[in-house]
Every structure is written in structure tokens, then in C-alpha cells.
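tool_call: predict_structure(chain=1)
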Amino acid sequence: EVQLVESGGGLVQPGGSLTLSCAASGFTFSTTSMRWVRQAPGKELEWVSTIYSSGRPTFYADSVKGRFTISRDNAKNTLYLQMSSLKTDDTAVYYCATAIGSINSSPRGQGTQVTVSS
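tool_result:
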């Protein structure tokens, strides 16, 4: 059974930084492409970033390009999202997910809340 557990969210001021982590188990993490998605209040699920199984290449939504960095440690079965220059529009619940199928159907964790506010 796929299990994904996100952590690292919190309250941060605009311009601040946070790093999210996702611990994966129940599948072969090292051969699975992964992604981060987010859902803001009242909005649909939004794709944020994808990373291939080897760590390259990586892809980003235009809204986060240059500010967010996705990475992974296959030895630790862990996915990361480094977020900097955070904006109020980045406020959302962030989920890690396998990059299989659509973002609405692929398995994801319970999410971690990121709130950007002064």
C-alpha cells in the first residue's frame, strides 16, 4: 500500500522560506517519478512540480519557477520541496504524490498546510 507522509508546513511571512518533506513507503520509491501538488482554499488541486526517479529532469509550474526546488533522496525514500520568496498566493495544503496518471487520481499523502501571511 502506498503511504506518503508530508511534513514541514507552517506559518511564514511573505518573502520567507520553508522546506517540505515527504516520507514514502509501500512502493519502489527509487524507480517512481514524484510530484508536489497543492490546493488553496476554494480552488482546485494545482500541479506544482515533478521530479523523475533519478532526480533529473525536474519541472515546475510557472507560478513557482525560480522560487521552488524539488529534490529527492532515494536512499531515504524522501521527497523534498524547498520554497523561497514565498507569496500569499502560495498559501495552500501541499501534497506529495506519485507522478502516475492525473493529479486528481494519483495516490497522495494527507498534506501539510503552508500559510503565507504577515
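agent: The longest strand covers residues 18-25. Proceeding to next step.
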